[in-house]
Amino acid sequence: MSVQIVETAPFDGQKPGTSGLRKQVAVFQQSHYLENFVQSIFDTVDGFQGKTLVLGGDGRFHNDVAIQTILRMAAANGVGKVMVGQDGILSTPACSCVIRKHHTFGGIALSASHNPGGPDGDFGIKFNIGNGGPAPEKVTDAIYARSLAISRYRFMDAPVVDLSVLGTTQIGGMVVEVFDPVADYADQMASLFDFDAIRDLFHRGFRLRFDAMHAVCGPYARRIVEGMLEAPVGTVIHADPLPDFGGHHPDPNPVNAKDLIAFMNGPDATDMAAATDGDGDRNMIVGQGIAVTPSDSLAVLTANASLVPGYRDGVAGVARSMPTSAAVDRVADALGIPHYETPTGWKFFGNLLDDGRITFCGEESYGTSSRHIREKDGIWAILFWLNLLARTGDSVAGTMQKHWARFGRNYYSRHDYESIDSSRANALMDHLRSRLDSLPGQVFGALTVAEADEFAYTDPVDGSVSEHQGIRIFFTDGSRIVFRLSGTGTVGATLRVYFDRYDAERLDLEPQAALAHLIKAADDIAAIPAFTGLPGPTVVT
Ligand code: G1P
Ligand code: ZN
């Protein structure tokens, strides 16, 4: 085995987005593409020589090939040891858990999250630092800068490592440990939640339908939910990870999981249903006849923290991404704890968690988590709900009704305009930006604009500033519309429009109807059909 120095040339646009570098599989299959990015990581970060890295992915197409490449490059760059999940499998939350538990230098997670898989789907790579969370922007910016100047990479000429067998081997001087990707994570879940109470719940006949969407959570949910918690076998459906996720879009929202929603609206509905995404960090909670919005879920978990052993000592504070509804803010105010508003993307929660300022955090995009790791965590959120229902004996719908009765309800929806021409999307945002000063006072139907701005965030811990994080329009009745462009898409641009309206009295409106006047105002303010060329949103969640 010998180290080879391979000549290469930069690719355009290896700029990590909201969560790492995400591109179509064909892009990653170009020779030197992955290698350039991985070498850019090694060239940028300091001090990994002789240390341990964690490596694994969500099992999507190209996962296995990429892992073998990264192993050889890690060996050639002087990494001491790589811990790889068996069969290359490692959910994003488990990756964070393992980095933290074993105090490793960091980790590399291979996933394009909820984007479709297979040869025609997407692939992605993300570098996580020693706190278990995504590298902060200054690191990802430096990696990107390096990728624009790269001229060679280091590669170890070595045989393929068998990832199916637990145990250790060597590549040159580097140890490769193939480990059980579920064990540490399952232990952590057992330490946080009341597993006895949840087991009792299942013994009493509570029925759950857990849709793993043929993605990474199948093995985790089988072992934890059907194994440790003794839910009936068959509770977890679509449990085998497949390279193309069975052709489905492994994004747990009411659009992509429409069969699950229909099931929960039908005669055979179980007591609760849940789904997780490609890499296991997103979750969706569904009750009989009700899909819980992620913004509400974060609020409910915060309000009920004392029912869960891991959080019995109280909640320090909470954070939500800016476009997420303000439901959790009301709970925080009631509890007398601080709440923070961060830009979209999990990396912005890292400092707040490390600094002990927050216990829970979440995003409207079906992501929720806590201080236990530095990623969002799908199974964690589902177990939290199970713990909660086990302790209260209530239903999902009943829990929501009581929550709204106590705190009022934030009607919320996100409208996506996908795969639009990038220049048109930018033109729409520029147009809005140019009108920010003139919007206040303008009237749109029954709504009057109170304020309009472009969200910028100053991290309270390290003082770093992130600008251009979405355009916000506030109305005098307290409602809000947010416009921003996605940072995770791989084709063209995606415009996201977020609607939030608070109502303390009317708790049972249909959300799209409750938001109809705001939706109309968004079209009027931003001329969405004219700019995007689309008559309406392509996805409504
Ligand atoms: C989307 C979500 C965002 C989430 C990210 C990664 O990013 O909106 O909340 O953190 O995926 O899962 P976006 O495409 O909007 O940039
Ligand atoms: Zn994900």
Sum this structure up briefly:
By secondary structure, the protein is of the alpha/beta class. It has 18 helices and 27 strands.
List keywords for this structure.
globular, 27 strands, TATA-Binding Protein, seven-stranded antiparallel beta sheet, binds 1-O-phosphono-alpha-D-glucopyranose, seven-stranded mixed beta sheet, alpha/beta, 18 helices, 541 residues, single chain, binds zinc ion, Alpha-D-Glucose-1,6-Bisphosphate, Chain A, domain 3
Overview of the molecule:
The protein contains 18 helices and 27 strands. It starts with a strand and ends with a strand. The mean pLDDT is 96. The radius of gyration is 23 Å and the shape is globular. The strands form six sheets. The protein has a seven-stranded mixed sheet, with helices on both faces. A seven-stranded antiparallel sheet has the order 20-21-24-25-26-19-27. The chain has 541 residues and is α/β, with parallel strands linked by helices. 53% of the residues are buried. Helices cover 32% and strands 25% of the residues. It folds into three domains: 2-181, Alpha-D-Glucose-1,6-Bisphosphate, subunit A, domain 3 (Alpha-D-Glucose-1,6-Bisphosphate, Chain A, domain 3, 3-Layer(aba) Sandwich); 185-407, 3-Layer(aba) Sandwich (Alpha-D-Glucose-1,6-Bisphosphate, Chain A, domain 3); 409-540, Alpha-D-phosphohexomutase, C-terminal domain (TATA-Binding Protein, 2-Layer Sandwich), CATH 3.30.310.50. Bound molecules: 1-O-phosphono-alpha-D-glucopyranose and zinc ion. Zinc ion binds next to loops.
